[in-house]
Amino acid sequence: MPDLSFETAARAEGARHVAGVDEAGRGPLAGPVTAAAVILPQGIEAPAALNDSKALSPRRRAALAEWITAHCDWSVAHASVAEIDALNILRASHLAMCRALEGLSQPPCIALIDGNLLPRDLACPGRAIVKGDARSLSIAAASILAKQARDQIMVDLAQQHPGYGWDRNAGYPSKAHKQALLDLGVTPHHRRSFAPIHNILCKEGFVSD
Fold first, then answer.
1. Cβ proximity of 136 and 129 under 8 Å
2. Which of 4, 86, 117, 203 is 20 to 30 A from 195 in CA distance terms?
3. How far apart are CA 164 and CA 177, in angstroms?
4. Quick one: pLDDT at residue 55?
5. Which residues are involved in binding a divalent metal cation (predicted)?
6. Sorting pLDDT into bands at 50, 70 and 90, what band is 205?
7. Residue 209 falls within a domain, yes or no?
8. Which residues have a Cβ under 8 Å from the Cβ of 4 and sit 6 or more positions away?
9. CA angle 164, 114, 39 (to 5 degrees)
């Protein structure tokens, strides 16, 4: 279970505002990549259920998202499909993370970043934490907001483009999603730089290898 060890250590070194940062949506074939940044207030007791978003039921995740947005300094940001295709998914994820940090009301003294790499354009000191969403409460909180926000975007896009099941698969390459790509074709919300989409477009003559 995540705890406050990283946050406590950072504050012991003089960091007053410690932000946890995570993203959602690196693996899907469609939709933006979304990042969130969260600063947990000092002295507040986080809900015992606060955990990596992947370990939570949708109902529990929604309830925790309400608590986080009510009690914490938080920000959610995105990188678009066009930015993903132009930059690559890693750089686009980092762009969304930097945007999320910029959206906080309090400039963080340090950012705890989920993963093994820090964004190039990070505006504050940072620490990369592998599996951080399962180790840091701030990162776990960010993972919840990022997933909650991105899932809602995909539900909305599913209404505009029925047939792909984005309200259920969030754009990930499920069997139904891949079949819909063959039956219905590629939408403007699909990531053309991802191999399955690129290969379909090549077969249809829209792009060349």
1. yes
2. 117
3. 5
4. 85
5. 22-23, 114
6. low
7. no
8. 40, 136, 137, 138
9. 105
φ, ψ of residue 73 to 5 degrees: the values are: -80, 125
- Would the annotation count 121 as a binding residue? no
Which runs of consecutive H residues, i.e. helices, occur in 117-187?
137-160, 166-169, 175-184
pTM to 2 decimals?
A: 0.95
Domain membership flag for residue 208: no
In a domain, 115, yes or no: yes
- Domain hosting residue 185, numbered range: 162-203
| pLDDT of 83 above 90 | yes
Are residues 103 and 182 both part of a single domain? Answer: no
Tens digits of per-residue pLDDT, 92-126?
A: 999 999 999 999 999 999 999 999 999 999 999 99
153 φ, ψ to 5°? Answer: -60, -45
Question: Residue holding tokens 């499909």?
Answer: 81
Q: What is the C-alpha separation between 117 and 127, in angstroms, rounded?
A: 9
The CA distance from 145 to 5, in Å, is 21
- Inter-axis angle of helices 137-160 and 58-71, nearest 10: 120
pLDDT band at residue 51 using 50, 70 and 90 as cut-offs: confident
Is 23 labeled as ligand-binding? yes
Judge if 39 and 113 occupy the same domain: yes
- The token pair at 134 is 């399962």
On whether 22 is known to bind a ligand per the annotation, the reply is yes
CA angle 14-128-18, nearest 5°? Answer: 30
